Structures are given as structure tokens and as C-alpha cells.
Amino acid sequence: MSKHRKRHEDLRSYRWYGVNDLRSFGHRSRTKQMGYAEEEYAGRPVIGILNTWSEMNPCHTHFRERAEQVKRGVWQAGGFPVEMPALSLGEPFMKPSTMLYRNLLAMDAEELLRANPIDGAVLLGGCDKTTPALLMGAISMDLPTIFVPAGPMLRGSWRGETLGSGSDVWKYWAELRAGNIEEEDWKEIEDGIARSPGHCMTMGTASTMTSVVEAMGLSLSGAASIPAPDSNHPRMASASGRRIVEMVWEDLKPSDILTAGSFDNGILTALALGGSTNSLVHLVAMAGRTPVRLALDRFDSLSRQVPVLANVRPSGAYLMEDFYYAGGLRGLLTRLREHLDLEAMTVSGQPLGQALEGAGVYNDDVIRPLDNPLFPEGGLALLRGNLAPDGAVIKHSAADPALLQHKGPAVVFKDYNDMAARIDSPDLEVMADSVIILCNAGPLGGPGMPEWGMLPIPQKLLQQGVRDMVRISDARMSGTSYGTCVLHVAPESHVGGPLALVQDGDIVELDVPGRRLEVHVSAEELDRRRQAWKQPSPTYPRGYGAMYSRHVTQADKGCDFDYLHSGASIPEPEIH
Ligand code: FES
Predict the structure, then answer these.
(1) Which of 19, 275, 296, 348 is the most exposed place for a label (fewest CB within 10 A)?
(2) Does residue 107 sit in helix, strand or coil?
């Protein structure tokens, strides 16, 4: 980097500690109150470790120790580490959806960094929304930042079968409903599917986003693929602690790292991983915090250029532990070299191409070569048409290829409760070629755009052996889910998007190769229905939910709050 190294008077924390006035007396005496001697903090970069540890977040159970290991590295490099708890978004427990709270964690992270004497940030996250949320906040604050990913948990196991988070829950739940396994089998699966700390070990949102973020240069190279219980993981944490101190002196910030090229690197990674559809929403939201303009069409055009190389569930056969042993993300990125911007900067201070030196692939079945991909094009497709004027998304690598061009009659559920009440009714008029539609599951309708998008197959069809159907909603879908599920329809039905106008029996057409999503109803008839449509009343009369409802943007804009998009810089806090 061509920047001058900072002197200690240039540190942001100098304003709190270095001057000699009434307020700085308080800052120093209160640091001493915590037991730190002057030589332990004076003149050192203050490193804020934002820790999303919580007993309501099973994916982050190891973060108390990891924070200590980051601190070890910070001390070694001459920094002063301070750990700060941040809102933890535990995917399994938070209702109605962690997505409702992603922007709250983003604001928490940004304001914690702004209001305190922090010079550099280490972000501990990994469970789904925690990764984009922490980074959205840190990008807006733009202090030197390293992301430390939680790492995937170990493989699940049941009677000799390997179990994957999420994917095998859906699979065996369908088998239980179809009567093919017993309650006691289901209970044993519950005992064996999550057997160590770490995030979901399928290619869900967590593995996708931590990998994407590493490819964008925001974690140390190799960090994202290390399983949480592996001893390489704490060593990566302490290395991140050492590196962030140097980044502060070098003044290497997210704004030096995030360019159109680094966002492309992130998108290409998500595509080659067969990654979660959630990555679109999160990457658009992250870009919205920078001057980079990222439209959904960019995902589609890059998707046509790169194949799916990671043979990891739900698109493939293996799990993240296998992916790590096969060379991990570094191995996969070497296979993508010709598509990547290798000059893009990384937190190591080296461009991506240099950071990848020495990487290799050790199992060609887990990380496929370009000439033997798992799927010939990237796993995500952007659809448009009269049913989704602002776009919709499908993960076609995890869908039944026979359904990728399909026409069928709609079976419409007005909301989740309607679907839960009727989907398994023997009286439901539905056939294997029907198209199931769920309304009111979007950013405002859900609210929080819950991961309901893998709509259940009606029980009577399950019993006939049907395992996939075309399903359409304005919801999101867990990255561990699969099936021919069209998601993120924008604008959503809650605000009068065309999904709200579809009626039972209308013919709906999905054409993934043509990137189209249409309802075969005339424009005049849709207009007539639009006049008769009434907007549902808001869910939240007060509180955070009311603020969310007033400011959240639609899926194609990343569902960030409108007032958090990049713009004029916010002044540093006055110290008096
Ligand atoms: Fe935390 Fe899946 S539940 S990543």
C-alpha cells in the first residue's frame, strides 16, 4: 500500500486517551479501573472485538474462547484488545426471522465502533445473518476490519449415514410425513445431526457468506473453510488478532478492499459453491453501503460464466468438512483464477492472487475441475416477467431439472397460516404439475422475509412419491433447502406485487433457461384484480418492527433500511 504508516497520534483512540484534559483523565482512570496499567494500553491501537456469542446461538458456542485467542494475537502485535458483545442472531431460535433483525445488528456494530475509542475491528460471526450484518455496519464505519468466521460444525451422523444441517432435516421430515421412517428414527436423527460447535455444515447461508466474504478479501485467506473444532481455527483467530494491529498502522480499511472487482469475486464464489440464494440479498445490501452499484442482473450474467464446482449439499453430495480436507475455499478459488479479479486487495495486505499462492485441490470429486463441473452454470438464476417485474431468484442447481421449464395451474395460499392449515388436507385440489404459491412472506409481509420458500409438498402427493414441485413465494429459502423454489419475488405481494393477484387455477409458467416467470392472465384482468386488491394492515404498531416496516427496502435492493445506504459521512463523535 502506498499510504504512510500511522503514528500513534494519528490513532482514532488518541482523541480519547492521548490528550491531556478532563475527559481523557476519565478515559484513562476508567481503563485503569479495569485493571490495565498505562503501558498496557497507552499508544497502542485499540482493537474492538465484536462478539456475537450467546447461549441463544448454538453456532457460536466457541466464541468466548475465540475472542480470547484473538486477544492473544492482538497483545502479541502490540495492540490493546477490548471485547464488546453485539446482538447475536441465532438462526434456529429467533422468530419470526433473523432477517428482521439483520439491520439491527448492522446498526449495533456500526454505532459500537463509532461511539467508542476503537481503531480497528475484529468481527466474530458466522451464523447466517451475523456475517452480512456485522460487515454492513463495519463497512459503513470504515475502520480497519477483519472478519473471523465461526467455521462449520462437524458432519452429522445417524446409523452410518452422514447427516447435513437443514438439508437432511427437510429430507427426513418428508420421509416421516410419508410414513417411511418412524418417530424413534426421527428422534435419533435429532441426536446426531448437530454434534459440535460451528455453523451449519451444508452449503447454507453461513458457509456461503463466510466463503464469499473471504473471497472479497475481508478474512484471512483460508479462514472460512476451517471446521470450528479444528485446532487450525483458534490459530486463525490469533493470526487475525495479530494482523488487525498491523492493518491499523497501515490504515487498510474496507473502502481500500471493496471494489466492483471484489464484489464480483464474492458473487463468482457464491455461484461456484452452488451457494445460498440469501447471498444475493446480503451482497446487494453490503454493496449498498459502498459506492459500488450492484444490480441483481450481475448475478445472472456471472452465473452464465461459471459452473458449480463445489460438490457440497444441498446441490451436491459432501459436507463442509470434506470441502476443507479437499483444499477448501482456497482450492476452489485456484480453479476459478481465470474468472477472478486477482488484483483485488485483501486484509493480508496482498492482492488476492498473491494470497492464494500455495493453494491446491486434493480431491477432484469434492472440488470439481472446470471441465467436470457439478452443474454447467452457476447455481443461481434471475427471473423476470409479469409475475416478478423487479426480479425473482431460483437456485436451479438444487432443483429437479425436469421442472425448470414448466407450466401448471396455481394453488394459492394467502399467507403462511393459510398454507399450514390447508396444505395437508385431503380436500386440497392439487396435482403433481400444480404450481404452489405463497403470498405475504416478503420483507414486509412475513414480516422479515422468513425462510419459508421451500414450501411443503402436500402430504397426499408425498404419499404418491412426489418429491419436488414448482413453488413460488416472496419469501427467502434456507441455503440448506432444495427443490424447484422460486424466491424473493419483487415487488412482494404485501405491497401489491403481482403475486398478490394470482388466483387458483391461473396458469403459471416457469422458464429457467429463458429466465422468465409469467402468469398467463391478460394485463386487463390483472389490472381489474389490482383495483380490487386491499393492502393488509401493518403487523407492528410500535417499536423496532414499526421502524423496520417504514424503512426496509424490497429484496432487489437488499432489504437494508433506506437511511443506511451509503451517502454523506457521519461526523466523528465530539469528545467533551
Ligand atoms: Fe447457525 Fe445454520 S443455524 S448457521
Answers:
(1) 19
(2) helix
How far away, in angstroms, is 539 Cα from ligand 1 center? 26
Mind listing the pLDDT tens digit for each residue in 367-407? 999 999 999 988 889 999 999 999 999 988 889 999 999 99
Q: Is the pLDDT of residue 341 over 80?
A: yes
* First CA to last CA distance, the chain: 35
Distance 474 CA to ligand 1 centre (A): 22
Nearest CA to ligand 1 atom 2: 200
Question: Per residue in 12-24, pLDDT tens?
Answer: 999 999 999 999 9
Residues 206 and 122 placed together within one structural domain of the fold: yes
Inside any domain, residue 337: yes
Task: Place 26 in a pLDDT band, splitting at 50, 70 and 90.
Answer: very high
The ligand 1 atom nearest the CA atom of 199: 4
What confidence score (pLDDT) does residue 2 get? Answer: 61
Question: Which atom belonging to ligand 1 lies closest to the Cα atom of 57?
Answer: 1
User: Is residue 361 domain-resident?
Assistant: no
Q: How far apart are CA 154 and CA 317, in angstroms?
A: 15
d(CA 398, CA 311) in angstroms, rounded, equals: 11
Q: How far is the CA of 200 from the centre of ligand 1 (A)?
A: 5
Backbone angles phi, psi at 405, to 5 degrees: -125, 110
Report how far apart, in Å, the C-alpha atoms of 379 and of each of 166, 376, 418 are.
18, 9, 31
Q: In testing the pocket of ligand 1, which one of 63, 94, 165, 203 has its CB within 8 Å of the most ligand atoms?
A: 165
Residue pair 387/499 in contact by the 8 Å Cβ criterion = yes
Whether residue 364 lies inside any domain: the answer is no
Residues 342 and 227 in one domain: yes
Residue-number span of the structural domain to which 318 is assigned: 8-154+196-355
One domain for residues 73 and 109: yes
- Indicate if 386 and 518 belong to the same structural domain: yes
Q: Is the pLDDT of residue 1 over 90?
A: no
Q: How remote is the CA of residue 485 from the centroid of ligand 1, in Å?
A: 20
Residue of 128, 131, 195 best suited for mutating to test ligand 1, as the one with most atoms within 8 Å of CB: 128
Bridge partners, 149 (sequence order): 125
- The neighbouring-strand residues paired with 199 are 152
Ligand 1 atom with least separation from CA of 128? 4
- Cα 164 from chain centroid (whole Å): 18
Q: Which residue owns the Cα nearest ligand 1 atom 3?
A: 91
Query: DSSP readout, 57-89?
Result: -GGGTTHHHHHHHHHHHHHHTT-EEEEEE----
**Residue among 35, 59, 41, 72 at smallest CA distance from 244:** 72
Residues 311 and 403 placed together within one structural domain of the fold = no
Using CB distances shorter than 6 Å, the residues near ligand 1 are: 59, 91-92, 127-128, 165, 199-200, 204, 206
The pLDDT of residue 408 is 98
Closest by Cα among 479, 566, 485 to 209:
479
Question: Are residues 337 and 467 located together in one domain of the fold?
Answer: no
**Vertex 90: Cα angle to 84 and 91 (nearest 5):** 145
